[in-house]
Amino acid sequence: MRVHVVRVPYDAGNRGVRMGKGPERLGGADRLRSLGADVTEATVEASTRFRAEIGTTFDLHRTLAAEVRGALAAGRFPLVLSGNCGAVVGAVGGLGARTALAWFDGHGDFNTPETTRSGFLDGMALAVATGRCFRGLARSVPGFAPVPEQEAFLVGARDLDPEERTAVEGSRLGWVTVPQIRKEGAAAALQPVLSRLTARRIHVHVDLDVHDPALAPANEFAPPGGLTPREVQDAVRAIGAALPICSASIGAYDPSADPEGRALAAGQGLIELFAALSEPAPS
Ligand SMILES: [Mn+2]
């Protein structure tokens, strides 16, 4: 296992607060080393002192894109631990075109400036990654090209604003729901969205609030009715069986919402799973 762990310890442009605490708490590098992995690490920092949610977030994306590109060039698996889901925009910049996108999340992250009710940029993260909004700023991320909607899919999303839901339903995004996974099993539930992908590799993003907060409370926004940690792992394995997972990101972990460390355990389990899946298949 050759892994490059990149932390982006920011939430809405602010360092080390709320979900910005998550990357350091998740750790990962030492645990992976103890399992025999060859691990390098980096922490992405804002390049300007004044914090503006939108400007600082895209600034972080630009730096993250370079980290991801460098890791791939060095033959390492980029594993991004981020406060916000928008880090995927930076990762996509580093990955280049022809990469599909799996998006595990309790929410849709598919709002736009015209539909958002909270004003939280990260609620638009998937819309940015697929080129629906903030196109100019997204173009400022080196290497970024929007992921075509038909090459992206939501997993476990269940709390969408009304207009956001309409947007997802009117889009070409895939959407695999909690009831589908519970009823059919992860592999069967994911098969329709996986079989239509034309990309040759995939980035897997996990907002830890895809988990049921009764089992693994990731943050204060986690909606009820989520997946079990086992279901999330099964779904990631099903994706990895269909095409190579070239990079991954784990986001939205707020340690203060998780006093018993159950979402932490789920996140650390995913870190180990991604590292294990990064091994090239024996030939
Ligand atoms: Mn999210």
What percent of residues are in strands? 15-25%
Q: Structural class, please?
A: alpha/beta
Helix content: 25-40%
Stretches where pLDDT is under 50 for at least 5 consecutive residues are: none
Calculate Rg over CA atoms: 17 Å
Q: What is the element string, with H for helices and E for strands?
A: EEEHHEHEHEHHEHEHHEHEH
The CATH class name reads Alpha Beta
Question: How many β-strand runs?
Answer: 10
Which superfamily, in CATH terms, is the homologous superfamily?
Ureohydrolase domain
Widest sheet: strand ordering: 4-1-5-10-9-6-7-8
Salient structural properties:
eight-stranded parallel β-sheet; two-stranded antiparallel sheet; single chain; 37% helix; 10 strands; binds manganese (II) ion; 18% strand; globular; 11 helices; 283 residues; Arginase, Chain A; alpha/beta
Structure explained in plain terms:
This protein is an alpha/beta fold. It has a single domain (2-277), classed as Ureohydrolase domain (Arginase, Chain A, 3-Layer(aba) Sandwich). The protein has eleven helices and ten strands. An eight-stranded parallel β-sheet has the order 4-1-5-10-9-6-7-8, sandwiched between helices. A two-stranded antiparallel ribbon has the order 2-3. Helix 3 runs parallel beside helix 4, helix 8 (178-184) crosses helix 9 and helix 9 (186-195) packs parallel to helix 10. The longest helix is centred in the N-terminal third of the chain and has 21 residues, at 53-73. It is globular. The mean pLDDT is 96. The structure holds manganese (II) ion. Manganese (II) ion is lined by residues 85, 105, 107, 109, 207, 252.
